[in-house]
TrEMBL record, chains A, B, C, D:
Gene3D superfamilies: Hotdog Thioesterase (3.10.129.10). Pfam families: 4HBT_2 (PF13279). InterPro entries: 4-hydroxybenzoyl-CoA_TE, HotDog_dom_sf, YbgC/YbaW. Keywords: Hydrolase. This is Acyl-CoA thioester hydrolase. One of its GO terms (molecular function) is fatty acyl-CoA hydrolase activity. Belongs to the 4-hydroxybenzoyl-CoA thioesterase family.
């Protein structure tokens, strides 16, 4: 496997995941070469992240005084082709929590347990009015780390 | 050309269009057979309808007391395959205005002037609070008919 | 419920369905009003149709001498708003088999058993070379009617 | 502007672009917060990349003995929110050519000339049969560098 900047040891990195969702590849996501297009993995990552956030109680947290999370960046490495009808497991974990942001990592396995995708992205908490980053509260940090 | 329930005379029907938008088929819209998938035409129709509504001044009409339009039904007939890189003209017209709804018709031509798609759909104006249909005002009707 | 051209008696029509797939609404399918956009139902119908065809053994039937099915038309009626995170059951059935084509009907229920969507569309079997319609074989008809 | 690993000097980096395509944001790409969702930028990048490859004569190069390009990784940094109806210019350039791969960079400006998106991704040329990377021919390199 090639060198991935955000993965030091693949074994350690992989073992840090536990939360995952099932994803069934849709026919409309295949391109003219019969492969899943390069855009769909970001849809899968989003689904996994939202389900993860919901499991922590942080999604739709209307009373939050600590702002809303926005995506600052996203990246994906394509390791194996994904085909129509593949049944994927898409994993998500919090890799790092900073003062106003967190780094989320992603991994997708196919039905044979092979790594098809790895990825990461940073979420920043911003104030809804000013758009400026706001510090993550201790309670949010705790929820993220114990899920 | 086969029989289409919402088209009596194709010649008359086609000549009723003037408003149209250009649509460039996206690579991600092609499927494993190299054709544009069956879902994309509804995206094209939506784009054309929104541009049409904007041209009438009825889109984003925040002060409207006559409710918001919602889609009640949509249909599309596929006449010719559409391919990646095709440059389409997607036409839209108001075919019929009722008391609380209007019927919008669609037609897409490819770069050779061939009809690839025809379609229609009904929009109903509803009250945002109650969700019940509300009558279209005379001013809305006028705007729709003179565009 | 309003009048739908392809449904005579809603009760009879609904009772004719048995095959269905689960569909989880994706966040990326919601629009700026928090509703699922008008295009996604056609993606759901396609998924249901493909799974149905696979269950009959007619999908990916490489040795077929009776041509390939293409979509001739599609339509959808929107009965109830669908929201992010709704869990739908999308039903599909063959309503009518003609000489070279078949009519497929669709219905989507939400988690409360309410009808959100109804729809239909015609598939035509065509010869891959000539593009002309070809008659459905008796074996295909049988598979379709006994699933 | 925050630190982007693949941009040393933003001024230098930005001045290296010339090829670009227009992209009109689609209504169906907005989410429930009125913003363009995080997935669409990768669709825009793909469109720009394909147009760029076509302009070099490298897209659909059927006689190529040097394999086909596949996407090895993709990343995007979100600098400014993009809204429905924004008219974007999406730029693309070859940043680096290796033995069997090339690095492509992307930038999207809105109608006010503000940078909304930056990104990059690596394409690898592989042999269609073996799936193994193949060296880029001198003629491909030349075409890429002179466009």
């Amino acid at each position: 496997m090639r060198n991935i900047p955000y993965i030091e040891s693949m074994e350690d990195w992989q073992s840090g995941f536990s939360f995952h969702i099932p994803v069934k590849v849709r026919f409309s996501e295949t391109d003219m070469f019969g492969h899943v297009n390069n855009v769909s993995p970001f849809i899968y990552f989003e689904e996994a992240r939202i389900e993860f956030m919901k499991s922590t109680g942080l999604f739709d947290d209307k009373n939050s005084s600590t702002g809303m999370p926005i995506v600052a960046d996203l990246q994906c490495d394509y390791h194996k082709q994904i085909y129509f009808d593949d049944n994927l497991k898409v994993y998500v974990k919090v890799d790092h929590i900073g003062k106003t942001s967190l780094d989320i990592h992603y991994m997708a396995l196919n039905q044979n347990g092979e790594i098809c995708l790895t990825g990461r992205g940073r979420m920043v908490y911003i104030d809804k009015e000013s758009g400026k980053p706001v510090p993550l509260s201790e309670s949010i940090k705790e929820k993220l780390l114990t899920t």
